[in-house]
Amino acid sequence: MNPSETKSPETTSQRWWQRTRRQLGIWAESDFLYAFWRSKITVVAFIWAVILLIAGLLSHWLAPHPIFDASSFDLMDSELPPAWMSEGDPRFWLGSDVQGRDLLSLMLFGLHISLIVGLISVSLSVVFGCLLGVLSGYFGGWLDTLIMRFADAMLSIPTIMFALLLSGVARGIIPKESQEAMAMPIIVVAITLTGWMQYARTIRSLTLLEKRKEYVLASRISGGGHLHIMFAHILPNVTRPIFVLATLHLGLAILTEATLSFLGVGMPPDQPSLGTLINEGNQYLFSGQWWVVLFPAIVLVTLSLAFNILGDWLRDVLNPKLQQGG
What we know:
By secondary structure, the protein is mostly helical.
């Protein structure tokens, strides 16, 4: 066989992509999807993250057993191991806890709460950080100094310590009967106030570069106001790194919520999150209930790992310098 006729896998994949990208319309200008499919670990992380997102957000429909109705579970079903073990029950695929509740249903509802806390806190951090960052970079002067020094001060406070302090203050102010209902807002506020600084610093540095470019000067000469220039011209052109930061931050926010719940200052026991499940299972770990700790911990670790992998991949793909260097 003629060596020139031999097609290497790389050449075949490139030719397939060249044929496919012509049919993708808007994607024809970039190799974003091609780079995605070439990274097998990124594809696996993306699929796993999507599965957990769907399972968590649709937990009320996907959970095989209700967990908030006390009449739906029986203490006779407590401490059952997973269904594939000799003493397991087919009704409880991953076993049951000390109260006889289905662990799979608990994990789905716990994942729901952890995802809601993470998504809300990251969204608020993005909005708050981008707003302060573009204001700081655009106007400069005393406003820039004030915002950046405040950001530096917040960066020196660990998230867990700040959340513990905020939780203690809230418990002293909020009536006792309302403390459980305010548990989630307190966690969201704590994660938001300790997570917006990276967005603000990134947007500020990019705004300092963008505001000197010709299109901004042209908009200013044509009579564009400050708000119009900041939010219609500058901000849309500096948001690319935000996708990377938000993806990484989401995994960290979920871990933070789980840590706080594990320490007993997060979600209350009647609103199980992944952290409360691990905390509950840890109390009975030495009595043999390893499944109550192991399965929620696997979900928590793999979910955070998936977001970290996606964030690292986005950073590599969206950074032109790294692309040129490769």
